User: Fold this.
Amino acid sequence: MSGKKNLNNYSAQKIIGRKIILRVLEKGDLKRTLAWLKDPSVNMYLSQNFCDYTEDQELKWFKFIQSSNNDIVFAIEDINTNLHIGNCALHKINWEKGACELGIVIGEKGYWNKGYGSDAIINVIKFAMSELNLKSIKLNVYKYNRRAIKVYKKCGFKLIQTLKKNHLYNGKYWDTLIMELKKT
Assistant:
């Protein structure tokens, strides 16, 4: 596999942004993460419904991520307080194609709409494209998540496909937007 990297090489690395620090997710972060996943006001923006997710499922997922050479999950910390406020990840890394999927959650709602997510995304993009030499990052976002769509566009993502009314939330079907950022 050309260009394949050992993601364990990045486990000690910290990525410093303007407002955030990205560091590899640790086992001690799981309790906080699980609380966010179960919070309906956070969960509504996630790729699946985690409201019934258990500690055992979270631990199993964490062990999978730790051993994966195609996924890397970062904890997002406030640069001033070191409070763990969210996670962002590069998933399903295809080393041959130089592509992956981006996921992000700011679980601490007091940090919403303050630029922390944008800073995390900008820095994880730089990492993906310069350190991992990836050429394409895709993501899925629900049409009702206007705040995230605005951030993704600001960070350079372009709409490439709309999956019409494929996501059921709160008794209504919503479109899922697929967006992509390509290395120039």
The CA atoms of residues 42 and 130 lie 31 Å apart. The chain is about 30% helix and 35% strand. The helical segments are 30-38, 40-43, 55-67, 116-131, 146-154. The beta strands are 14-16, 20-24, 72-78, 84-94, 99-106, 136-142, 158-169, 172-182.
